[in-house]
Q: What sequence folds into this?
């Protein structure tokens, strides 16, 4: 039996084993993406209805242990997906689906 991987170093054997297989690129999730996912879970777990307001940015930042710019980025992401509407000076309100 022919075994070309025999006698190769570990990294060479790994490359040989992976050749021909589809690999997907991995990426790290940003803090804002994690916060957005966490806020989505919060909205669902609290069964918030359209028109309900999310807690203020300062409270979210304190509760989640992140800065307000991270909260704002997460809120923008959710707003872009049509889940919430950020109203300047009033807060973030859940939009109808």
A:
């Amino acid at each position: 039996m022919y075994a070309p991987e025999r006698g190769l170093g570990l990294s060479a054997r790994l490359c040989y084993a992976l050749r021909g297989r589809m690999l997907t690129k991995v990426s790290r999730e940003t803090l804002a993406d994690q916060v957005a996912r966490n806020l989505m879970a919060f909205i669902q777990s609290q069964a918030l209805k359209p028109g309900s307001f999310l807690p203020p940015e300062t409270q979210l930042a304190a509760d989640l242990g992140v800065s307000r710019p991270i909260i704002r980025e997460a809120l923008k992401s959710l707003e872009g997906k049509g889940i919430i509407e950020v109203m300047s000076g009033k807060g973030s309100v859940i939009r109808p689906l």
Observations:
- The longest strand covers residues 84-87.
